[in-house]
Structures are given as structure tokens and as C-alpha cells.
Specification:
The chain starts with 13 loop residues before the first helix and ends in a 6-residue tail after the last helix. The chain is mainly α. The protein has helices at residues 14-30, 54-76, 84-93, 98-101, 113-117, 120-130, 135-143, 155-169, and strands at 102-105, 108-111. The structure holds fe (ii) ion. Residues 57, 61, 94-95, 164 line the site of fe (ii) ion.
């Protein structure tokens, strides 16, 4: 997973790093996929001209969130507190539930039976809780999408949320 999502190695807390990796591995297993599949699964089933894989999307979101965090820290200094470990773990895991939400049927990607009932922010949060990820990371997964619009987001979740929508709408994605 560290090769697929290179920013994982910037998580300084070794336990958080290990749990972030395990959570992705467990999701892939439960979804009935292989790691190779991750490079093919589209990051969205919604209309979009170009649909990068879930790997490309996740790395784009994580890099954008980290870049924004670095700008904020440089510009606002001590006025802003950002936990980079939590930010990176949450960014890498924000869409982990999509491998449970999606299924491949005869070469086409569709919603899985469970995905029709439970969207990825919910299934991803449940899995992260089960895998021992801290509440702060669960919060990012739970609130990164429109499900979180009525919830006060932490700074780390605000960054992942906007990085996510930037990586979707800027590529022509429509909700
Ligand atoms: Fe996303």
C-alpha cells in the first residue's frame, strides 16, 4: 500500500501508519478485489469526462490537502494548528469505503448490493473504527462528502473535503 499511496510514509506515528495500511488492505479483501484492481476502479460512478482510478484520485486529494496545509501553516503560523499525521491518514482513507460501495459486473463498475444502501463515507468510517483508526480520522472519512455538510468539520476534514471536491469538479465531475 505504501507504494500505491506514497504519502502514507509521511505519517510519523508508526501505529497510525500501520493501521492506515491495514484498513486499505482489509477493505480490498472484503470488497473481493486485489491491489492491482485499485488501479482500474474508477473513483466515481457519477458523470465525469475523465475518471481517474481510485488510486490516482486518492493521491491527488492527499497531495492537494497536504499542499494546502503547508500554505496555511506558512501564512498563518501559530494561528492554525494542523495535525499532519491525521490529515494524511484521513486523506488516504477518505474513499476507502468505495471498494465496498462498488462492484464489477461483467467488466462494468456498479454499486454493490451493500453500496446501494450504505455509501462509502459510512462504510469507510465503520471499517476505520473496526481497524482502530482514531476518531479524528474516522471524522474525516465520515464528513469528507456532502454527508458532512451539516457537521462542524475539523480543520483536517475541511482540507480533505475541499481537496476532494477540487479533484472532482475541476475534472468536470458533476454531483
Ligand atoms: Fe474522494
Amino acid at each position: 500500500m505504501n507504494k500505491i499511496f506514497p504519502l502514507i510514509d509521511r505519517i510519523s506515528n508508526s501505529s497510525l501508519l500501520a493501521r492506515t495500511v491495514s484498513c486499505w488492505e482489509e477493505a480490498v479483501k472484503r470488497g473481493g478485489w486485489t491491489k492491482v484492481d485499485l488501479h482500474k476502479i474508477p473513483f466515481t460512478l457519477l458523470a465525469a469526462e475523465y475518471k481517474p482510478s481510485i488510486v490516482t484520485h486518492t493521491n491527488g486529494v492527499a497531495e492537494a490537502a497536504v499542499a494546502m496545509a503547508e500554505v496555511l501553516k506558512r501564512v498563518y503560523g501559530d494561528h492554525i494548528e494542523i495535525d499532519m499525521d491525521i490529515l494524511i491518514s484521513g486523506a488516504i482513507l477518505h474513499d476507502v469505503g468505495k471498494v465496498l460501495e462498488y462492484a464489477e459486473v461483467k467488466g462494468k463498475y456498479k454499486k454493490s448490493a451493500s453500496g446501494k444502501l450504505v455509501r462509502h463515507p459510512v462504510s469507510g468510517t465503520a471499517l476505520a473504527a473496526e481497524m482502530g483508526l482514531p476518531t479524528e480520522v474516522q471524522h474525516i472519512i465520515a464528513t469528507h462528502s456532502y454527508e458532512g455538510d451539516k457537521t462542524p468539520r475539523t480543520v483536517e476534514s475541511v482540507l480533505v473535503h475541499h481537496a476532494d471536491f477540487t479533484n472532482f469538479e475541476a475534472l468536470g465531475g458533476e454531483l
